[in-house]
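The authors assume throughout that readers already know how a fold can be written as discrete tokens. For illustration, here is how one protein appears when written out as sequence plus structure tokens.
>
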Amino acid sequence: MIHHLSVSAADPKGAAEFFADIMSGVVVDFQPNPGSYMVFKADGHGTAIEIYPAGSVMEPNGEPGAIFTRQPEGADRRSPTHFALGVDLAQDEILARAAARGWDAFVCDRGGHFHVIEVWVDNTWLVEILPPTFAAEYLDFAGAVTEMADPNRALDSHQPQARTLERV
């Protein structure tokens, strides 16, 4: 189980408020990296998202633990790192919340296995939002993969996306 993860945003507080809204969570200041926030969902699992100012990176620091530094202004902020987040909101509510922030959002079919709503935070990095119906599809797919005799074949038909189903 992943208990928390970290991302960065041009507007960390705005991103934290977005995630708190769609997760039914709370936002708190994250003092180890000034200007950062942490969103907690009261689910008994410690589920949380840390949101740092854009350009924040972590560097090893031996036994005292990692330190925060910042990339120079204008550095490329794209990353292959992303996550899927199941929420209790309906598809149209998620799309409306992303649109209200000016973020691109797309409803996508993942190879006929399951759907996601791609929300592009800051129009730079990806979070896949799963409303209840999409989360059920994903869980069915993930469960089927673990039951397969050869799970490596599970994604054979999962090809790169030609285009999205919808654009907000």
